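User: Some background: our group keeps a shared notebook of sequences we're curious about, and every so often someone picks one and asks for a predicted structure to add to the entry. Today it's my turn. The entry only has the sequence so far, pasted here. Could you supply the structure so I can complete it?
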Amino acid sequence: MSSIWIDARHMRIRKYTAAATGPKSIVRVEIEVSEPGSLGYLLKDIGEAQREVEAARTKTKQKPAKPLALPYYESES
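Assistant: Of course. Here's the predicted structure to add to the notebook entry:
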């Protein structure tokens, strides 16, 4: 499980909102960043979290591969 690190020295949460429609919800978070290096790390963390979620989603959608139907030739020895 990935996480997103918010460095209190260079970042602050300006506001956040949530909206729910049926079983799904959307959460919006505004983060103010005052240091370019911290922005880079924040974007890296968000990207890693997104890749992890997409990989998990893709993994659950894949069906198990069918075994190959390879012929068996018994050796003559």
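Suggested note for the entry: The chain has one helix and two strands. The CA atoms of residues 53 and 59 lie 10 Å apart.
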